[in-house]
Amino acid sequence: MATKKKTPRRSCVTCLKWFRPHPSAQATQKTCSEECRRQRLLALAQRRRERDLDGHREQESRRQEACRKRRVERGGPGLEAGGPAPMSRSTLSAEVADLEREIIGKLDHEARLSRSWVVGKLRSWLGQIDQNVDQGGSEKPACHAPAT
Ligand SMILES: [Zn+2]
Asked: Model-level pTM greater than 0.85?
């Protein structure tokens, strides 16, 4: 009786849950689901963009310029041939979306930092309480000055 060999389990790089990769992608599959894969690719793209923000902005502005040029050639709405192209609302919202992503990235970073700060503080406070309990138990924590 031959037992069918199962593919070994792996931990998803996004949600850390265990999963069995598809047999055809055993060596390369890093995420458990399409949603985790989408999140991972988004995070990788954001990291690439952060590493070369100026390069990405330059590329985006070049793409935008080419798009405007094509629209002018087609005689698109609101754009006259010749003269500087007016700032379009779509450009603005793209910039706002960029800014939003940047701010969210920074907030995430701050949240991570403050979480580790809170954990560190909690541990030091809990350590102090432990010491006070060891020294007799009824003493008040050292963080308050004793009443005179
Ligand atoms: Zn996952």
From this structure: no
